[in-house]
Amino acid sequence: MAEQHFDVLIVGAGLSGVGAAWRLQHDVPHKSFAILEARDAIGGTWDLFRYPGVRSDSDMYTLGYAFKPWIRPKAIADGPSIRDYVRETARENGIDQRILFQHRAKHAAWSSETARWTVDVEVGPERRPAQLSANFLIMGAGYYRYDRGYLPDFPGFDRYEGIKVHPQFWPEDLDYTGKKVVVIGSGATAVTLVPAMAQAAGHVTMLQRSPTYVVSMPAIDPFAAWVHKRLPAKLAYELVRFKKIVLNIVMFHRTRKYPEQAKKFLLDMVRKELPNYDVETHFTPRYNPWDQRLCLVPDSDLFQAIRSGKADVVTGEIETFTSDGIKLKSGEVVPADIVVTATGLELQFIGGVEIEVDGEPVKMSERMYYKGMMFSGVPNLVSLFGYTNASFTLKVDLTCEYVTRMLKYMDRKGYQIATPKPDPTVKPAPWIDLKSGYVERSRHLLPQQGDRKPWRLYQNYALDLLTLRFGRLNDGVLAFSKAGALAKPLHGAPSTPPVAMPVETRVPEPA
Ligand SMILES: Cc1cc2nc3c(=O)[nH]c(=O)nc-3n(C[C@H](O)[C@H](O)[C@H](O)COP(=O)(O)OP(=O)(O)OC[C@H]3O[C@@H](n4cnc5c(N)ncnc54)[C@H](O)[C@@H]3O)c2cc1C
Fold first, then answer.
1. How far apart are the C-alpha atoms of 281 and 266, rounded to whole Å?
2. How far apart are CA 169 and CA 183, in angstroms?
3. Closest residue by Cα to residue 191 from 333, 387, 54
4. Which sequence spans correspond to the domains of the chain?
5. Rounded mean pLDDT of 296-304?
């Protein structure tokens, strides 16, 4: 017997888990719930990452919750402010009282007989085993491993005698004043670290294998500043949020439709920022904008650091590390007192929790993502995942709304179970249609999307808003049933075999 039972268990007390808790409290206050959090802090990503300059790379008007206005001046906000915002949301709403800290979910077993999940948990540093049960599971466990980041197998890495740092595990006492720093990478983490470290370091080199599109934006949105002076906070927030959402959708679709124009526009901007720089080599990617994510820099800080001579970019492949630096295949040697490997995350799906349905282990890579939140043949489980081309929270907010609609519907109709029915006629496609290396590395672990509704991910907020807020719950795919009444084959059958497909867009990844 499980130690404690809840109507809903949320896994993860990050931006998504806290948002889901708010939604439950607001829409279905009679439901009991708890949040399982592996760490002893609220905030997830925004608590874990402590590297210099850590910040969002999308605006807080869309990364913030729909229900809680972002009232700080900076739209591109620093990590500690986002952490405070999540914690404040939890505290203000008593959500912090519902969190079971140091409770790591390991295994979740569904029983159709009882319409319950039994969740095996490890508690505290001593990893004491415990069991909880719930009728519904919401996975807000993020999308990457917390215990390790990605580190490529660099030749000669062990030979290097300087200081090595991974941004995911930043040493609090690292003093880089006056030091020669090399940041390996070209993603959001690298472009954040370079200008931030250049303020104190002797010199910072961003060493990249190939360039990324970099675009500058004002950290303080002028329209937002104007509106906030004139309107009440909530109304101003909603207006700016609406403007950002529409603008992002229009920009994304124009960029995909007219890639050459978009490319010219972006590169002209960089040329203006760096008039005497080799933009061709260091800032011109081989792919089209939005085939991979664009890197946002606030107030041109990266370009300023380069212009000041405190930072530069080197593009080339590493041949080997030496005792005091890095030798490239071109023969160039980059000296380094400190090497920061901003080489990315290691993807992990649903917090690494093993799933079992009616005694059968579920391989997520063989399941299909229903409406970007549930999985074929897996009852009463929702996973919170954001857009790859817009702020994470936009999709998560809509998903949470959908969950409470579904819970209310089930209560009204006397159902206990909701299961997306596998449809073998739907063609599978990769869930994250992105070419980035870290997605490719993890593809075998990830579920698939389908080639048509409701299995296809459109990465489009406006469309999702219509579907998830107003669309039919009983759509002929989501099967509702009572405890003990569900046919076994629904769970057992994998959707369709995984196939490799061409990939296109982006996922929110910082490095
Ligand atoms: C440096 C960085 C910058 C980013 N910037 C942006 C941005 O600007 N815009 C954007 O849209 N996205 C951004 N992202 C993506 C970002 O992760 C999401 O925006 C958002 O923070 C995800 O929130 P989450 O709550 O879903 O996941 P997380 O923040 O990852 O939180 C997950 C929580 O679940 C807990 N957990 C995990 N597994 C278990 C388990 N088995 N049992 C119990 N608890 C568990 C973790 O401890 C953690 O507290 C960024 C990511 C990084 C790393």
1. 15
2. 15
3. 54
4. 5-146+347-481, 151-343
5. 96
For domain 151-343, give the fold. FAD/NAD(P)-binding domain (3.50.50)
Q: What is the pLDDT of residues 129-149, one digit of tens each?
A: 999 999 999 999 999 999 999
Ligand 1 pocket (Cβ < 6 Å) reads 11-17, 36-39, 44-45, 49, 54, 56-58, 63, 104-105, 140-142, 146, 189, 351-353, 384, 386, 391-392, 508, 510
Contacts of 279 (CB under 8 A, 6+ apart): 267, 270, 271
Half-sphere exposure in the Cβ direction for 324 (13 Å, CA): 3
> CB of 401 within 8 A of CB of 395?
no
Whether the pLDDT of residue 98 is over 70: the answer is: yes
CA pair distance 176, 501, nearest whole angstrom: 44
Rounded CA separation 160/322 (Å): 5
Under 8 Å CB-to-CB from 201, ≥6 apart: which residues?
176, 177, 178, 179, 180, 181, 310
CATH number of 5-146+347-481: 3.50.50.60
- Same fold flag, 5-146+347-481 and 151-343: yes
Question: How far is ligand 1, taken at its centre, from the CA of residue 370, in Å?
Answer: 21
Nearest in space to 296 (alpha carbons), one of 510, 82, 74, 61: 510
Instruction: Give the pTM.
Output: 0.92
Residue with tokens 């809509």: 398
